[in-house]
Specification:
Elements: E1 6-14, E2 20-30, E3 34-36, E4 39-41, E5 43-50, H1 54-61, E6 66-69, E7 74-75, E8 84-87, E9 90-94, E10 101-107, H2 109-124, E11 129-131
Parallel strand pairs: 9-11
Antiparallel strand pairs: 1-2, 1-10, 2-5, 3-4, 5-8, 5-9, 6-8, 7-10
Length: 135
């Protein structure tokens, strides 16, 4: 079971273009069941990404919807101790019985607060995307 704050690794998922992507990390921001566009879901999450270089980091952090995450904001045994970012504009909806995932850590409370505030701000500006192709 995954809960809010959990960092999970999904064996494979479909990205916003419907392309199957193997093994990727997400942070769970909502674990209440719901329905979107007539599909039921168990949780909502944001994808986590790594920086490939210092130049890549600078480029990605210029984008308002990307939130930097550092290793000290994650608790867990299987964390890779690398900085990265969370894409706050892409809201991935999942059904737990349709994906293979495992919990690898937990996000700090203060990072979740920053993330939720950013998601709300982006939503008010109509800049979030509900990604339901994994349902």
């Amino acid at each position: 079971m995954c809960r809010v704050l959990d960092i999970i690794v999904v064996k494979e998922f479909k990205d916003k273009n419907g392309i199957v992507v193997p093994r990727h990390s997400f942070v769970v921001i909502n674990d209440e069941k719901g329905i979107i566009e007539s599909y039921s879901y168990d949780f909502i999450s944001n994808v986590m990404c790594s920086f490939h270089s210092e130049n890549h980091k600078k480029r990605k952090l210029k984008i308002k919807s990307n939130l930097e995450i550092t290793p000290n904001k994650i608790n867990g045994r299987n964390v890779n101790n690398k900085s990265g970012y969370i894409r706050a504009d892409d809201l991935f909806y999942f059904k737990k019985d349709k994906i293979d995932y495992k919990v690898i850590g937990r996000l700090s409370d203060d990072m979740l607060d920053k993330l939720i505030k950013l998601v709300i701000s982006l939503n008010v500006e109509h800049k979030t995307k509900d990604l339901i192709n994994n349902l």
